[in-house]
Write a structure and sequence with these properties.
CATH topology of the largest domain: Rossmann fold
Number of domains: 4
Largest sheet: 7 strands, parallel
Shape: globular
């Protein structure tokens, strides 16, 4: 913290998971920001993480000066937060990387920067995402870095970047420097100077060869039996247990199997089991997280969506149903255990145990997943030609516009399509201007709309706006808009 407060250099902070990295930027940001009135931006990959940290700071009295924006919040709250950025009320602000694609957000930051001249700090939490998730899972992490670099690193005074992570390899460090434009001549510090072990000393790692395939088959009795034994060995009134899986269906199937074991009497009645993955609605995910944190759930089965930054103090056992594809994921996930010293003492535990179940076929599956998930040049070329063939000139401008349903191309699933579009954007071939989810099928009748435009009430104004959105040539009766499961047509 003493190295951070002077704010005289960019810095990478490497500390084990559970060491309390967040306080290292929260305190300097608030101490300096409340004096200078400058804003600190915290880019973090998980909504639950930012909400948890902000609510904790609100409970300490920083209700006016700390806030966050996420898609889970009501629009009127988001508008108030934007105003808080512009009018200098907010000093510490949390945001997910995807928000940098929204022009209104970038405009709010630009207006604040005009007043502040520079940000107090730009904090990149879980900085390994720049390399690990940035290239493999969350391309918007790299997009956010690019936008921040344009915003506050092109004209002096430059804003200082702080990078925090427990799992920074040399490759990650090089990626960080390259993306931010840090050269050998720049003042860049690494703290601590010697690399800390990424695993806390009270965490013990174990592995178990179950000798039974998982992928393409049901969860076997060998894996289920091992998990049931670990649950029985855990005092669920004092300790929580977390089980990491690599597939959403595994989370759901294992939850059903364990709930049946409770009903059959193989597991105690006070074993409260839930599953958690990114496919659940955001409100349900938040409800499960809160229940787990309060102890209302004591066995949680989850994908890596419940990984980084989740701070629950009484998780005393961790089981991996199968090995994760990446070492960084494993280090982050076992780092969820034993975070509260007081809770470990109350449970009478000097150590917490993390068990990894595996079969040799699991590693073959992971290698195949990595190979299949890579973006290859021929696939990008093919996608580019498809986009060109479907692009149309926008009626009210010179831009070429292409609207792509997420299931448009059979050869690309949603994630591969998103990554492919990102790489085309990185090559400056296109610009991703946004995405819209959950549209309804609507057919617009042009004559009826023209009739409804006569007047000044809300219906007349809406009808007039719909007509002005798109003015097709007289001979064209084509598609007006198409995205995911929704379509609208303009007809005679």
């Amino acid at each position: 913290m003493e190295a951070i407060i002077p704010n005289d250099s960019d810095m990478l902070v490497r500390l084990p998971t559970g060491e309390g990295k967040s306080v290292l930027f929260q305190v300097p940001a608030l101490v300096r920001g409340l004096k200078t009135q400058r804003l600190t931006i915290v880019v973090t990959p998980l909504r639950a993480l930012m909400a948890d940290q902000v609510r904790s700071l609100w409970g300490m009295g920083f209700f006016q000066s700390v806030d966050y924006i996420s898609g889970d919040r009501d629009p009127w709250i988001t508008s108030e937060v934007y105003q808080g950025i512009i009018d200098n009320r907010i000093k510490l602000f949390y945001i997910a990387p995807e928000r940098f694609r929204i022009p209104r957000f970038r405009e709010a930051l630009s207006r604040r920067l005009e007043h502040d001249q520079s940000f107090e700090y730009v904090v990149i939490d879980e900085a390994h995402c720049i390399s690990q998730w940035g290239f493999e899972f969350r391309p918007d992490y790299l997009y956010a870095i690019k936008e921040l670099r344009k915003l506050c690193r092109t004209v002096e005074p430059f804003s200082r970047f702080l990078f925090f992570s427990a799992t920074v390899t040399d490759a990650t460090l090089n990626a960080i420097k390259e993306e931010v434009g840090i050269t050998a001549n720049d003042n860049f510090k690494i703290k601590p100077e010697t690399m800390s072990h990424p695993i806390q000393p009270f965490i013990r790692l174990h592995s178990e060869d179950v000798q039974s395939e998982l992928y393409g088959a049901d969860i076997t009795s060998a894996r289920l039996g091992f998990i049931e034994k670990k649950i029985l060995d855990t005092d669920l009134r004092k300790s929580a247990l977390i089980i990491f899986v690599t597939r959403k269906r595994h989370a759901e199937n294992l939850c059903n199997l364990l709930e049946q074991s409770v009903k059959d009497g193989a597991l105690p009645d006070h074993a409260k089991i839930r599953y958690f993955h990114a496919g659940l609605p955001s409100m349900e995910r938040q409800e499960i997280y809160e229940a787990y944190k309060k102890g209302e759930v004591n066995v949680l089965i989850c994908t890596k969506a419940f990984g980084m930054g989740m701070d629950i103090s009484n998780i005393h056992k961790c089981i991996h149903l199968a090995p994760p594809a990446y070492l960084e994921d494993y280090l982050q996930e076992v780092g969820r255990t034993g975070r509260g010293e007081k809770e470990r003492n109350e449970a009478g535990l000097a150590f917490v145990d993390c068990d990894l179940l595996y079969d040799k076929s699991d590693f073959e599956t992971n290698n195949k997943k990595i190979r299949d998930g890579s973006i290859r040049i021929p696939a990008l070329v093919s996608l580019w030609h498809n986009l060109i063939s479907e692009t149309e000139k926008f009626a009210h401008g010179n831009e070429n516009l292409c609207v792509i349903p997420k299931n448009k191309y059979a050869s690309l699933d949603e994630n591969m399509l998103r990554l492919s579009l990102f790489w085309l954007e990185r090559m400056e071939r296109l610009e991703i201007i946004g995405s819209v989810n959950g549209l309804l099928k609507v057919r617009l009748n042009k004559k009826n709309l023209q009739t409804l435009t006569k007047g000044n009430d809300h219906i007349n104004l809406v009808a007039d706006a719909l007509l002005k959105l798109y003015e097709p040539p007289a001979e064209q009766q084509g598609v007006f808009y198409e995205q995911e499961q929704g379509r609208a047509y303009l007809t005679e």
